[in-house]
Fold this sequence. Notes:
Protein name: Glycogen debranching enzyme
Shape: globular
Domain Glycogen debranching enzyme central: 703-981
Family: Belongs to the glycogen debranching enzyme family.
Domain Eukaryotic glycogen debranching enzyme N-terminal: 30-120
Largest sheet: 8 strands, parallel, barrel
Subcellular location: Cytoplasm
Amino acid sequence: MAEQVRVLVLEKGENKESTLYRLEKGWKLHFVQGPSLQVENVRVFCNHPTCADVPFSREKYTELLWQNPSSMKSDVIDMFVEVNIVCAGSFNYYFTIDGGNNELSPNGRGSFLVDPVMHVGLENEPLPMDCVQVQSVLTKCLGPFEGWKDKLKVAKESGYNMVHFTPLQELGYSNSSYSLRDQLKLNPLFCKNKQYTMDDVAELIKLMKNEWKVLSMTDLVYNHTANDSPWIQEHPECVYNLVNSPHLKPSYFLDRMLWHVTLDVAGGKLEYRGITPVIKSETDLEHIRSYLNDELLPKYKLHEFYTVDVDQVIKSFKSQLGEGLYTDLYHTKGDLQIVQDPQFKRLGSTVDMAIAMKLFNVDKPGIRTRDERIRLCCEDLRVKLEELNQEKVDEIHGHLQQAVTNFLANIRYRFLQDGGPKYDKVTRKQPLMFSYFLPPPGPEFTLEKEEQLMHTDKANVMFAHNGWVMGDDPLRNFAEPGSNVYLRRELIVWGDSVKLRYGEKYEDCPFLWDHMRQYTVQTVEIFHAVRLDNCHSTPLHVAEYMLDAARKIRPDLYVVAELFTRSEHTDNIFMNHLGINSLIREAQSAWDSHEEGRLVYRYGGEPVGAFMKPAVRPLVPAVAHALFYDLTHDNMSPVQRRSVYDMLPTAALVSMACCATGSNRGYDELVPHHIHVVEEGRPYASWTDQTHVCHATINMCNGIVAGKRALNRLHFELGKKGFNQVFVDQRDYDTVAVTRHNPHNHMSVVLVARTAFKHPHSLDTGYIPPLHIAGRIETIVLEGHLGVIETVVLESHLQHRGHHAHKKDPQFINGLPDFHCHIREDVSPDQSQMVHIEHTENSHINVVHFHHFPPGSVIAFRIALDPVSTAALTSIATTFSQLPPIKDGQFSETSPFHSIVSKLTLSDLNRVLYRCDNEERDDGKGFGAYNVPRYGSLVYCGLQGVMSVMGPISLSNDLGHPLCCNLRDGDWLPGYIAARLKAQPSTQQLGEWFEAVFEQLSKLPRYLIPSYFDAILTQTSSIIHDAAWCQMSTFIKTGSTFVKALSLGSVQMCGYVKTARLPDYSPGTTTSVQNAQTDDGEDKEEVCHDTLSAGLPHFSSGIWRNWGRDTFIALRGLLLIPGRHDVARNLILAYGSCMRHGLIPNLLGDGTHARYNCRDAVWWWMQSIKDYTKMVPDGSLLLQEFVSRMYPTDDSEPQKPGAHNCPLYDVIQEALQKHIDGISFKERNAGPKLDMDMTDAGFTVQASVDMQTGFISGGNVHNCGTWMDKMGSSNRAGNKGKPATPRDGSAVELIGLSKSVLRWLIRMNEEGAYPYSGVKAKTKSQEVTITFKDWDKKIQASFERYFWIHTSPVPEYEPRPSLVNKRGMYKDSHGASHEWADYQLRPNFCVAMVVAPELFTPTNAWSALSLAENVLLGPLGMKTLDPSDWAYDGDYDNDDDSGNPKRAKGFNYHQGPEWLWPIGYFLRAKLLFAKILDKSKPGLLDDTVKCVKRILSKHHQEIISSHWRSLPELTNSNGKPCRHSSSAQAWSVSCVLEVLYDLEKMDTKAQKRRKSKS
């Protein structure tokens, strides 16, 4: 089995204490940094031992060291720290940032739970938690110890493998199983005939484990001890009393008041109020309420324990005024409040006299005498004190009214309510309500005397009882100050036990901590498992301490608890702190069979047909593992609540749960009453193998013992053999079918149970819908029902719910005598006495008809796959074995799939993995994107289209998703995948491979299809992705998952599309065809080159696919960095062949239908050539490549390939010369057919060079010649024919690009790779040569002068200062017709910074970048316009048909929406100038690197979560999705990848530090 690894993503500020994570020993846990931490110096600490030999210490944390699986030093996305899981228990982790290691102030924390591994038998056979089968016994009912073995043998023979013993220790006077008198002493009840010790118990427990293979569990009771525990008299500090908890004094006095009410009622002293000892009706309760509210409570004024003595405070205040003790009150602050007397004496509370002085010792205008002033001050204070007292009176009155309500509710339950005991009359033994406190021993006193004793040394033995608070916060100790549970009478009190007080730490009560630790150690030395009694009320830090001690003795201790928090989150807090392995759940909580079936499904297992999970996968929150009881020992018998006929089917349903199961002794024997933990005193019967039984023995014939043994065997087998998938089917109101499925061998067990939540009026079968079972029914595992032994009393049983004849045996606990479980095991399907099985022809479906299936019946079928499915599974398993991962870039020689994939080019993989609907339809093969009914079309036709949807489905096991339904309903999707690949020659072999595999897939049962389909595609897609990366550069091959994800943009965007071809090359041109494919659909074979889509799905085919500007902005990131040099070369030459007017096409249109309406594409083209010569080995040879000119002159018709060839350097030179000469032409075919929105003037294209500045200039107000090219199209809004962003004049990015190109050409000329050193310019008198160096210098000298906007006004540079909106920035353009447009803040200057950083003064550059970061930076992209600009509108909607000219018909395309590609240049610029400035500002580069990574973390999340596995064209304001944006945009992906490429080449201090750590 592959090594299991779980991956947990850490995020800043998280607290996962209420999130449950479960792990197993032998696994590995990896922590990775989430987006919020990827830029931080994160340190992770964990208290899980580093190896099994190291003892666990909760306070000992070890720092985990970072590991980096990729070779990248800059990208930490894949880095992880590792924990080898070697110990069971609960463990904590925390992490800090920026080098800290303080556990008390971490930046995030959490816990994880590791399951124990239990063993049974002499051979130490493992017992999985899902195989645990517990029987609970009241240990006191086992009787003398010498008889235990025979009584416990009942559990063994019934098929249980664990016995839960209630506490074995000496019990208190109440004989309650959970009221322990001495935690360290064996109950003397077990030693009537001989003295026994815990050692004897240990020997029996050892025998049970080794010989019976039965483990043992007992309770740990930490929260209370018996009233008569002798050690609490010696150590009263161990209990909540009125000395260590004086806040309980008012509650104690109220308790004594109510006790005296009981005595008065019992003695007839309140008959004058209409209250007699016999409580018969609600009227009696109202008389009691009236007495309490009108007489008793007003008499004893409990509010005085909280209020102040007004006269005494005034006296003190007046005295201090007279003595002048009030001078220095400057630092006294706050309002006047009552200060509670810590001893809670009547009127003992006070106020802060300093505050009183400051607030009430004030001047009184108009008062002349000192005495009069003092009198008025005292009067004001008295008013305030009386107000404060009244607030406290009202508060206490509210508490007391709730106390009265709860007191009466308790009386109602005890004396009136159905389901309550309904006592005859009030007596001392049966009081109105049990007391909350244990008074000191001695005679009874009057209430007045009892109040006096509260303040004497007797108070230390006035103990508080323990109990349970319904609906209270379990994380709060209800006996501590701040809680009013005792005062409000909200406690369901246990009058035989007192509540233990540990304090916050060991030093607060050393004896108690030591005593309970000794009790814990003694217990776990004997028992294999513990149940934490009253866990939800036990202080967490106490139980944590005790269980840590327990696990030192027994490391694989199994810990269970029954929590009553009513909150899964709170349950998880307890589980995480204490390492609770299973929570006790109970089938009796279900109100009908549907709910009971839901519980079976809820408490364990995956759905049948669940997806196969990879060995390395995310660690996801878990549902608490359940110990699912049919009945716990706390509750009444199902015979009392439901019906005796429900006991077998409910037990059967519980046994089908994929978790631990349990039952209470007596359930299997059909005991029809609650075996009460307090009141029951009779012993259990013993096991006998004899056929005849007496009242002291039982055998297999008693109750449902035989049925339970069969069910326990089944449950154990299902857990042991891995039947961990569950399906619950509600057949009718009473009948439930549960399937347990083994995902490894695909065996199933289907159990059908007919419940009886109400006692049946008839035992006829009636109609039960037939059950359809797919596969081969091998055997009936068991069938049975509960029957009446004597048929003559059947009618009587039905009438009296089956237990009228039960008589309690005075000596032994006994069950119903008239019932017997008829059970048969391993029955041949044709021998069933309960069902008839019909086999359908030509199908592997079995129809089960129920002909004798009365209430109380169960039947279980064992089902195997049919032979055809079995053979198909074998074939698929063989296929899986032939799909190993690609290792070190090497394909397996023995894998047929590897052999096929190794031959596929990246162009082929574009077809295999991607291609949107338009691209696919363009092939003319009849395929488009696959449409999933009730879901919609997949985004890609290739495998990624499916995997993008299947990924989240498989992770969450969402088998109800429409895609899963589609797969189960038919083989359409697998057929589609194979057929579309077979339709192309280059992928035909791969299509045939899928076809063969999917043929076998189709033979599986339909419920397995989604799982196996997903497994096939997951493994094959992984190999195909690896095959793609194998064909890329080393940077990609060894890169992080983020880098690799971005690099796949090269495969997504780059492919051959018939309607978007490149122009043909010259026949003599040696163009590469590695990424080409053969088009056999025409008369002759033709070589077809890949093109680069601008974006999907909008720019995928036809004339809209190939954009010159987009292609060359994206070329460096998507082609050069991944190492696709041949494709880059082909595109450079192809676009160069179409040069006309010194420009390359904006829209290529195969060259013959090109549009030359942009000024910037040619400069991006030349920048790409520069990048090519720099990044490709011998790249400068490209300049000598021949270009077949389609338009050798501006006015020529398209020429045939090879008719006019010239070297690439001549084409470049022509472009430069044309700009110097000046470009001005009107587009061919100008008019509505070419562009229906443009005005006539807009078709005129102009570009030139300003010889004074060297700036490229051009355009006009009627068109838009840069990337911001939105043309208005709304007649209604009046923006039709108006460009939103003309950007005429000198656009800033074009200045940078031209400067970059010139600098490069100077170098190329000096190296002899470029034959020209300048261009020719005509003056009025002559032609002169302008060298590239001169041109370069002009731009350098002019740039800051004309583009920088100073932080403060400089008149000589600002002829129109009113146009300046922001300072400390670079203009977007220079010389625009609309002068204000120059001053708009846009992100375009970042391009110039990256390609020509020498133009910028570094400090100015940093100022501009900081401004852009504050104003323009969005979550994923850059705002295209300053939000404070009048034209800003950040939300793009191309369908907007309003009258708003700023946004109608998407006019605001570049006027605010946040485009992604500029963020790449912005981040690269920040890195570049941070490196320059780092010398003068140390640390700036490291801070900038962190900033860049923080920003890019969002792009990482976007690309791995997007169904397109790409980055969008743009977002609306603040990163909101834009439905009109391309979902996958070439330059968005490219520019982000370029940032990572640049980042990797930097050597920062942070990277060096991280490298040394890892």
